[in-house]
Amino acid sequence: MASSSTTDAPLFVLPIGSSGDLACFQPQPKIYVLLFKSPPDNRLTPEFCKTFLLALNIIDHRLPKGVVVTSSTIQKFYSNGLDFEAAIKIKGFFEDSLKGSSYPMPTVALINGHAFAAGFMTAMMHDYRIMNPHKGYLCLNELDFGAALKPAMASIFKEKVPRPDTFRTMILESKRFNALEALKEGIIDGVGTWDNTIAFIHEMKLLGRADTGVYGKLKEEMWRETVRHLEVGDAAEEAEINTRLQAANLRSEKAIGLVEEWETRIGRTKL
Prior knowledge:
There is one protein chain. This protein is an alpha/beta fold. Helices cover 48% and strands 17% of the residues. The chain is built from twelve helices and ten strands. A hairpin with a 2-residue loop joins β2 and β3 (31-37). The longest helix is centred in the last third of the chain and has 43 residues, at 224-266.
């Protein structure tokens, strides 16, 4: 992080479990920098997500409206994704881990290293993304470890990635995008480090965007599908998934019946 930010005392520091923390700095008026560290790779654990959301709420309700920047002090990783065990076991954990798409101030993810799976999704929940041009990849690697995408996981990319073919490549090929590739595909808004991020905030005139009080409401409408998936939570999602599974099972049974009918007709059961 830039020295002007780290030499000043943080506005507040919150613990993440027993070995991590999240510190909020204010390098310039109304620019709030959240620096997190949760060894070894900033995995999105329940403790991480609760702390992250608390920090956002503190800024929203106790500080003047401005711009929030998030980044990691672990150089290799922005975040390596969900704590998969917790995501399966804890009701509502996934929704909590990805809230922030309708935050009432501009948000910027400074992606300092790898952002994989839900770590990538977390970066996408921000309004803008600046990425280290020399280190790190962005990747949705659910295909590689056999995890289905939940509706909110897919919708945030469908709504924010400009090109359908890039969306397809992300999900069905698990492509790893470096910073220049991500910039070309419109996934990020710029490359650089802290100085570039601060300059970007001023160039985009982000500091006054939240003053009228409708910034979050506008984002709720822009990203309506994602916000809806996050709001309805586990119960509605499970009901939707079960309906889809039942329909898929019926289609599969019908398909097998057609194959068996064909086999009977030609007098053979194996190709």
